Batch of 2 targets.
Target 1
Amino acid sequence: MSSAGTARRIIFRTLLVLMATALLLYGGVIVYYMHVERSIVYQPSKVFFAARPDEQVPFSPISLTTADHIKLSGWRIDNCNKGPASQYWILFFHGNSGNVSGSRRWYQVFCRLGFRTLAIDYRGYGNSQGIPSERGFYADARAAFGYLTDVEHVPPDRVIVYGHSLGAAVAVDVAAEMRPAALVIEGALLSIPARGQELYPFLPVKLIAQNRFDAAARIPAVTCPILVLHASGDTVAPLYHSRTLFELAREPKKFIELEGNHGSAIALSADKVTAALRVLTATLQKPDAYSLKVHH
């Protein structure tokens, strides 16, 4: 055999080894992503954040039990201003991290308007039992809605479901099932795979993601009025995610762009959120709530 043929064979074998090594490494990265995905999606805390003097809200703790026998904890906030909004409850779902104590800025806005609020901690968060999961989150949301309608005897058309960040997907799901008075989503994602693919373009996230939270697939099934809020400077959930959800949603709907980023918009744009919720409440009280069709 010629030296040239031997050299070609060595090069070919070397390339095969390099390709096999690269595939093994790539496969290892995929396996690692699948292993750590839960810790990326779910970041619960059992530590309750201390309130600053300007963040105090008149809450009382509540507990409820899900259909699969998980005991959840939450906050009930109903010692607020009186007014037209006091006829409504806001069922609030926070994001993927922390617990109910980290959302006081939202509760303050709701309370100033007179809304009564129920905020729950998903399973594994705060004082709630269980282990976080997508199916579990949806079950938790249904249990919270049932707590209002069955225990507090609140008519479904007096419940406004509000979700922030990952909680927006939870809110969309429960609104599609339970038909509340209205749905409000803030800082929403199209889905976990959609955002994951943007963050990890070298991985087939859309194929391997075990947690979906696919708000884009569910929002067309929502038939109540929808208010979509999103901060222009949001880098956690890019603005176009909510823009696309808005386009997928049925009328009546309204989109409002906020100042700030994913976590600060509720503080920096409190006046905008307050005004939007005030208009929403007034619209819901009209004989034809579908006048909300006028939107930005």
Target 2
Amino acid sequence: MFEHGPFKDCPKCGGTACLGILSIGGQVLTRRCTNCRHILRMPLPSLDKKVIYLDQLAFSEIFKMKSGYRRKTAPSRLFWERAHQAVERVVLLQQAVFPTCNIHSEETLVFHRSVELRQACELIGGDVAFKDVPQVEAAQLYAFVDAFQQGRGAPHLNFDVDDILEDKRNVWLPDLHITTNMDMSIFADDLRKSRTAGSDALTNLVERWRTDKPTFETQLETELKGWGKTFTKTYVELNNRRHKAMFDGDWDAVARAAMHQVNILMSQLMAKFHVDRPEVSPQDRQQFVDFMSWEGLDHLPYHLVSAYLFAALARRYANGQKRLPSQGMLNDFAAIATYGPYVDAMFLDRECASLLAEKRLKTDLPLKGPVFSTATGDAFIEYLNNLSDNAPLEVKAYVKEIYGVE
């Protein structure tokens, strides 16, 4: 009852068209005979899937195309229809995955059809997820802590994409996708407030750039040298907020402040330098202070990419840009800074993609692959189609048999 076509003849009982597909898992195709229950396991060809980051706009637009929700007269409909087809084909041909991360999850929650969109993102992505942004940042930071404590310079990270994935990349897509209908919309209001607060802070920063008119070089220096100071300031502000919430009896606010990623990371960082205990040696305290201002942190990958992005944005507003940043820009910057050095390609909004194409960012940043947006939509679809067209013939044959894709 669980077998499905295409059916073949059974090599054990000799039955005709009775050996159906039972499951696809990992690197194995399992068939079972509906007559004699004979099981046949066949190894599938090995894979090497590309990892491509899609921003939330792309996931949302492709979801609208899949669900028929997008208006026929909507702008860019033709592009998103082509993008939907290209993404679906390259995923089914086992040539690429489009993982989701915590940023996608948070932005999905504020969408009015959040449950459907989340499930669509899982299917579009190819059953693979990124590790959350704080996890990747923490792993990089700890590598720098180890290097500092051992008296070495800034370490060179290898940016192996499998290090930032929660799931195995090179497994064949299962023929059965299991998901949940859990409604997380109760968190949507808090996320909207947090997003608005971040957007307001960025707008205030923009007004300062318009007044001070920093050059790219001066703003970059400010950003690069400010990691320890900004991190410590945020930690102090969070704890002040937590103490006030405790005084007011607002236990939800206490929990939010305590579980903030900066609070958690600072606690772990202090433990690594042994300054989280009642009695701290002067040597440990000084080493911690020295690390927080260590020039090697200028090369911390997620901090380096983020610093360049903010410097480029500051340059635009110093030169007179009128349009304010989008509400999602801070999330976009976080995704680029975290995943950019690892993934094979990124599809971003137009402004972020154009920032990365500017002088210094294009040459200096350790981004691994090409960056696309709707401004280079044809090139993005061509990139995906080339991946699909160049899939090994053996893989294509199995894909046609299992998933019915030419």
